Amino acid sequence: MAEIKNPNQQGAGGGQDSRTILVFAGLFILIFFGLQYYKGKKAPEQPTTTQQQAQSSSSTSPASSAPAEGAAMMMMTAAPSAGTVSAASESQSVIENELYRITFTNRGAQVKSWVLKKYTDDEGRPLDLVNHEAAAKFGYPLSLYAYDANLRGKLASGLYVPSATGSIAEPGSLSFDYSAGGLTVHKTFSFDSTYVIHATVTVTQNGAPVTTLLSWPSGFGDQSTLPQYASGMLDLSQSGKDDQLPAKKVVGNDTLHGPFDYAGISDLYFATVFLPDTPSDATVVSLHNSLAIPRNRKKPDPNVTDSASVLGAAIGDNSGQINTRIFAGPKSLDVLGSIHTTSGLNLEKVVNFGWWGIIAKPLFLFLRFLHEHVVPNWGWAILLLTIILNLAMLPTRLQMMKSSLKMQRIQPQMDDIKAKYAKYKTTDPRKQDMQKEIFDLQKREGVNMFGGCLPMLIQWPLLFGFYRMLSNVIELRHAHWLWLPDLASPDPWHILPIFVIVSMFLTQFLTPSPGMDPAQQKMMAFTMPAVFGFMMWNFGSGLSLYWACSNFIGVAQQMVMNRTSLGREIREIAIRRAAKKNGKIINARR
């Protein structure tokens, strides 16, 4: 067969601290909005081939399973030839355990419903992994993909003979057979008490193997908005190297040659992954279609729609027979860590923490520990983790104040040095001598010009880590806390973003900045809180909860530190410098 294809640091000059803050803030905002841009950017439309589906009304399923031989005899049509195997009518078979309830139809021997019992949709109903709108156009889960559209249509519309109908408890298996015009198909699905099932598929034409692939072609049932569709990924692992392709990089109907340890698709919270029994022989076809969805789900207008990217994947085998395990379920680290490929790899990397995984994953493991052993609520666990992290960072705040005080003590000497070189242009080589004198002075007095940036250098990576963690862990999906119905979604009352704005303003107001220009200080006190508050307006409320709580803890710590001898000395220096500067301005005006 043919192969299948703190804003507090003083710098060298009087405004160096503010410039440092602005640089950090600019980088922060740029990265934050950059992440959102690439996450929400709509994928370009790809050329697609619509799978033909011939559907008819389903017959009522009996309450219990029928024996395999009896079902085959009852549903076999009067055969026009000895090689014809086809059912007389459409029927359903239900596979069920404590985790899921899968409904197969014998039309195409494919899945019509895949309900995860432990998860709900946005309406509070049991979550169906099948995206019915997309599946009606592009194909249902576990349908067969063929390069030839006519063959694909026959495989999807044929009435297969099931080995059993009605409900089937685990452990067990379900087989489907179909034969007509020389085309013969056999599909067997085995299942147990986990999220993983096993599939065996053979397709022949006049006895010769036919190139077909087992597919999950139409995304997931929790996808209904453009951001949810945009979170789709094609997940691949080749020879132990994991990779995730966003929707905009996935080419429709593209053949990818193995070996593959696993391959599949995922969105933010759920995944379907094929784990072939023989990775070296596996071949994958990436599927990418476009679906028009209403821009406003509550008031849908057929004239106002967006084009959403619907991802899918299909797996085949060069031997002509498909043997693969299939995981379809939540992107929970515990669940994914328990599923291994034939080479021993697990599926944990399907959870996409990105560059910040080195911070995000340990944060989540600590958060999960607090939730399991201290407080059984994710919102309170976030607050407890925030308190612990801020207490751990308290020494860096003290170091920042000490560094700021040292800088203010030598500020008059730094001003004298700058005054000595003020007559030279910026391009004059003697300006380098000024910088050297300032550097030598700082070194002699034990001043580290970057010491005040330490809290910022620690806190902002933590914020990014929290952002990646809270945006990707399924445990926070639909997690309640006080007035918040979902810690993974924005605050519906916008209370937390307002708290972020107020807490950032108080932080700027209470933090001493002796060398900062008044105009820049005003900008930092009003503009930055407004910018960050706006950013938090549409982010998950779990992130806003962390950021607001962290800011209020910082305000409390700053109020206490301002009452220490260290804080009083910094404030006195600030008052003297402000009075001196105002006096110079008054004299200049006279």
Short précis:
By secondary structure, the chain is α+β, with helices and mostly antiparallel strands. Helices cover 40% and strands 22% of the residues. The chain has 16 helices and 20 strands.
Radius of gyration: 31 Å
| CATH class identity of the largest domain | Mainly Beta
Distance between the termini: 97 Å
What sort of overall outline do the alpha carbons produce when their principal axes are compared?
A: elongated
How is the biggest beta sheet arranged?
10 strands, antiparallel
Mean pLDDT: 81
Q: Which fold does the CATH topology of the largest domain refer to? A: Beta-galactosidase, Chain A, domain 5
Tell me the number of structural domains.
2
Strand content: 15-25%
| CATH architectural grouping of the largest domain | Distorted Sandwich
* Total of helices: 16
Oligomer: single chain
Q: Let me know the number of strands.
A: 20
Regions with little confidence, pLDDT below 50 for 5+ residues: 1-18, 38-82
Structural class: alpha+beta
Helical fraction: 25-40%
Secondary structure layout plus pairing:
Blueprint: H1 16-40, H2 68-75, E1 92-96, E2 100-105, E3 110-120, E4 126-128, H3 132-138, E5 143-145, H4 149-157, E6 161-162, E7 166-169, E8 172-180, E9 183-191, E10 196-205, E11 208-209, E12 213-216, H5 226-230, E13 233-238, E14 241-246, E15 254-257, E16 262-266, E17 270-276, E18 282-294, E19 305-317, E20 321-330, H6 333-337, H7 357-373, H8 378-392, H9 394-409, H10 411-420, H11 430-444, H12 454-472, H13 495-510, H14 518-537, H15 541-562, H16 565-589
Parallel strand pairs: 1-7
Antiparallel strand pairs: 1-2, 2-3, 3-4, 5-12, 6-8, 8-9, 9-10, 10-11, 10-20, 12-19, 13-14, 13-16, 15-18, 16-17, 17-20, 18-19
